[in-house]
Design goal:
Beta-galactosidase, Chain A, domain 5, 32 strands, 30% helix
Length: 790
Amino acid sequence: MTEMNTVLSGEEWLVTESGFDPARANTFETLLTVGNGRLGTRGTLEEGWVGERSGTFLSGVYDSHDATVIDLVNAPDWLPLAVLVDGNRLDVQNCRVVEHERALDLRQGVLWRRTVFEDDQGRRTRIESLRFASFADRRLCALRLEVTPENYASTITVDSAIAGRRRNLDRVPYYPEHSVFEPEVKWEKWAWSNHLRPVITDTTEDAVYLETRTIDSGIGLGYGASLDASAEPLRRAYYRSGEQVGERADFAVAESETLRLDKLVAIVTSREEAEPLQGRCLEALRGHRRMGFDDLLSRNRELWKSMWTDCDCEVIGDPVATQALRFGVYHLLIAANGDDPTVNIGAKSLSGEGYRGHVFWDTEVMMLPFFIYTQPATARSLLRYRHHTLPGARDVARNSGFRGARFPWESADTGQEECPVYTEDGAHRFWTRDEEIHVSADVAYGILSYVIATGDHDFLVDFGAEVLFETSRFWVSRVQHDPATDSYSLKQAMGPDEFHSHVDNNAFTNRLAQWHLEQSVRLYEDLAARQPSALQSIAAAIRLDPAEVQHWEEVAEGIAFPPDPHSELVEQFEGYFQRKDVPITEWDANNMPRYPAGYNHFNCEDTMLLKQPDVVMLMYMLPDDFTTEVKRANFEFYEARTLHKSSLSPAIHAIMGIEVGDSTRALQYFYRSALVDLTDNQGNTEYGMHIASAGGTWQTLVNGFGGVRVHHGQLTVNPWLPEEWQEIRFRLRWHGNSLAVTIGHDEATFRLLGPEGATEEIVVAGRALTLTANEPVTVTLANADTVLET
């Protein structure tokens, strides 16, 4: 048999691990996650090890049983496949690891592994494997494992299982400060939550089946697994326990002979399938077995090829940047299920338990742009999740004493507020759940950004208008009217900069709320003129009348927005300029700011220090609202006071720095965002991907260096490249067509891909350009009036 790594793509598509280091093993478990948007499985070793934090996460499968707040359930593990020689288990604890390497092939969505173990008798065994979660059928996970005794012949036992005893991390009990636990035991120091109870463990003549059910939410999870071998077993036996089912088989293997094992797993849930689940699960498994591992791999490869055609990014002259971009795109693709409009992307995607799988504003502001401009059907599905959870958002508003709908700071399956009230140690209150109310405007921003880019106005009629109208009702009930000035204020709020709570008239929140109301009024008027019957149906369903819409307009006109007409600076919130201006004087090894002496996340309230961009983020999201001079003045002022203690922060500063002509730190911020997980530069990748940072990295390339922005509804391009880069390449979807873009220092080439005769107007470096389908156009950037031969 040929070595499995011959199927891998070139090095530029690989993320690799060399050697086994217990201290970094959990980080690689995150990095090497395989998934298909419906599920993600962390990159743990097939045979397991004592310090692993294994996990398979199924999008939308939440449960709150005996947990502090609701969790994305750590579902049954389909992966276990152990090898034993004379009863000795081959793993990193029992054997010496002679060789260990793994490679995640971003292009094909497969994880390859090769490990050579040596036992205490000097016997060397090579283990090689491939695994993937299929995009061709999201119910399928597949694993091929080959075992080769390199210097001996023996009976080899394989143990394949589905492990149903799973626990979620809940909270860390109090330990003395600076306590350090070895990698093998650190997860044991947590309090854990149980979300599953076993329902069925069963075996057939060629498969095993495990069914569990979430305890509170009542979701059934059915797993069926088969194991096919390249040789007939000497013995084969199935076993069942309360929470595990599996099979063991013995094989006589000669020296240097390779035993091949193909494990196929079908996973169904009652979220998607009618019960009973067992028959449906095993039927799907039989279909996969008839096709066989190689054909299943081929089908999955074709789906990945299609996706990469739409969304590949490349930096010519910087292979590290290219790898980081592709790594981020890979993880974005495996985080989103475009087939299921009831789910969204958690802050750690499907790669770990951080933030308990909850959905934040990160989706609409940091991740959604990638999907809008490369995978618009998936973007539509992600936005439908907000419509699906609109009843929960109505409850959130009502429970706070307001009208309409307010999307929560942390959302799960129902749209209720899922943010914890206190930190794990109980020492600090999370005010984000009460005060970071801008999420509703962020959702409106995502909806309208999608419609502008795609032209999908049907989405507004079917879903978007109801969301915008109901959330507008929240804003007009949340504002406070000042009769003396006839203005409206938003008090006790918090912007993206979470160092400052309980503030009045936060610029980011106020302006986005105002913009939200303006857009809702415009949408209402447009529907009244163009689709009156559709508007009538929407209005009747939510009992909306024209007088209410007129009030939205009045409130929008009167919302207090902090800019001083005599100053270019936008005050972040009332009284911000009177806070203590603490200088940032130290930077870490990544050249990122350190907290000034004596300060931390929870005691910056009375300072001007910022966690992440607030005013700068506002100017990024609403670029038409501010002149370049105002953007520049605010960027320079707030940049000097931002500590970038959120992974969302560097990307926005990189983009806005380029936009205002201050590119001095753009490349540094790009790398900080792009490598946040690959180099674990925040020290917490083991809990899951910083998936919003992956979205921010893509935006830095396309919207920052590529200069692609939407101004007044039109696609514009104003690029800038670092000297270190030769050119950048990416693709976009705009109004249903694909646009291939190549940008160098002196010229840019655009190719509209679409039906013959299709045209599109874009603006490049200030010059209007008409693109015709399949006719490339090259523009010299030094003089945008010159178009080169095409």
